[in-house]
Design brief:
single chain; 226 residues; alpha/beta; Rossmann fold; 5 strands; 45% helix; 10% strand
């Protein structure tokens, strides 16, 4: 009798495993969320490309239906990156007017994913500036929310900096994007306010420190109307 019960338990256990779907990986979960959010199938033959590209947008950003329709009408954009660039360049930018930072002796900053195209280490050199204090919290988001000057990379080919900027209030922050992308590309493809775009190529530490002096002056005296 005991043996029969054990076999029965094993049988139903095996059936249960068959009925339980394998856990979806992160990309599948994101894809399903995007498909439900935008109903990409409505937009024609490029729906899969649109769905994949839209998954790179911040979760709290809502793409306008007109942009999705225009993406499908553009035709021949089958790579996720190509479609992402189309959507970003046509997407509605988020208004984020900047208030000048108060005049004081020091300012907090955070640096994220900096690259160097010269002998000057732009991350290490920042620590030598007498008026800059680095913020280091448990997470990048928390550090950025507390810092006054954000020195960020674009986040690579998929502009992942959009995700970070979507999570913080930029009103009292000065945003610098350090990237090899052209300035026009940065402004077209980043959804949030960018105050200055720089290329990570400085001739000397002194040149870089002088540049940060200029940034402090601009951040404290020139409000932007965006």
């Amino acid at each position: 009798m005991k043996e029969i019960i054990q076999k029965t338990v094993k049988f139903f256990s095996a059936i249960g495993k068959l009925l339980i779907a394998e856990p979806a990986d992160k990309s599948k979960i994101i894809s399903r969320k995007v498909c439900g959010k935008y109903r990409a199938w409505k937009y024609g033959p490029l729906s899969i490309s649109i769905e994949m590209a839209a998954s790179y947008f911040p979760e709290n950003y809502q793409l306008d239906e007109e942009v999705l329709k225009a993406a499908n009408a553009a035709g021949n954009i089958y790579s996720p990156k190509g479609m992402l660039y189309f959507l970003l360049s046509h997407a509605r930018k988020i208004a984020a007017p900047r208030q000048p930072l108060p005049i004081k002796t020091s300012y907090s900053y955070v640096a994220w994913q900096m690259i160097n195209l010269s002998k000057v280490n732009i991350v290490t050199t920042l620590t030598k500036h007498p008026r800059l204090i680095e913020i280091r919290e448990e997470t990048l988001e928390l550090s950025a929310s507390k810092a006054e000057i954000l020195i960020l990379s674009s986040g690579g080919d998929y502009l992942e900096v959009n995700h970070l900027l979507s999570k913080i209030d930029l009103t009292h922050k000065y945003v610098i994007i350090c990237s090899v992308f052209e300035e026009a590309f940065i402004h077209d493809h980043i959804l949030y306010r960018v105050d200055r775009k720089i290329t990570p190529n400085f001739k000397s530490e002194n040149e870089y420190l002088a540049f940060m002096d200029e940034i402090i002056r601009e951040a404290t005296t020139i409000p932007l109307n965006i």
